């Protein structure tokens, strides 16, 4: 970036003071927790309804900052849509989430926590 600014400054005979700040961190999931969450989702929804090969996204997510402090796993909870119906953009008032999606998400969280508790106990008891 500084090299680009230097070139522009020279071309236009101006001075550019570059002040770059890291505003958004890269979101990096804890691999073990990600696997546990995918396992919990597959237990509830069936493995055919769970995918772990999503294309990485370049959007920002505040959760990334938390993951630098506390290990965790960020996931996308979605649906395949309903054929023939318009699918409004996320974060708009026209977007509606079916109650069953909310229920499934909450149940996944509960199952995920239970699975982690069992794994932690097994690890502490059996090493």
Structural class: mainly alpha
- What is the helical fraction, as a range of percent? 40-55%
Order of helices and strands: HHHH
The quaternary organization reads as single chain
What fraction strand? under 5%
**Net shape:** flat
Brief summary of the model shown:
The chain is mainly alpha-helical and 127 residues long.
Describe the structure.
Helix content is 46%, strand content 0%. It is mainly alpha-helical and 127 residues long.
What is the strand and helix layout of this fold?
Blueprint lengths: L1 H11 L18 H15 L17 H5 L31 H28 L1
Helix pairs in contact: 2-4
Brief descriptors of the model:
127 residues; mainly alpha; 4 helices; 46% helix
């Amino acid at each position: 970036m500084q090299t680009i600014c230097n070139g522009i400054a020279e071309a236009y005979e101006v001075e550019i003071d570059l002040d770059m700040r890291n505003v958004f961190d890269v979101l990096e999931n804890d691999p073990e927790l990600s696997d546990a969450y995918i396992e919990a989702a597959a237990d509830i929804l069936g493995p055919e309804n769970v995918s772990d090969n999503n294309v990485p996204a370049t959007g920002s997510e505040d959760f990334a900052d938390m993951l630098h402090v506390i290990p965790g796993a960020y996931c996308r909870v979605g649906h395949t849509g309903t054929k023939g119906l318009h699918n409004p953009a996320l974060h708009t008032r026209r977007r509606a989430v079916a109650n069953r999606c909310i229920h499934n998400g909450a149940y996944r969280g509960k199952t995920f926590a239970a699975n982690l508790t069992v794994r932690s106990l097994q690890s502490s008891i059996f090493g």
